Amino acid sequence: MATKVDKKNAIRQGIIKAAIVYSQSLAGKTFLYVYGDEYFEVSFPVDHFLHLTGVETRLSAKDFYRNAKKAILTNNQFYFDARHVYANAKKKLPCLKRLPELTNEMVCVLKDMQTMTITYKLSVTNLEFTLGLTENIDRGGNKINDFFLPMSLRVKDSSVEKSNDGEIIDFIFSKDASVAKYDVLLVEDKDKKIPDCIKHLISNSFYNEANE
Question: Which domain of life is it from (predicted)?
Answer without folding.
Answer: Bacteria
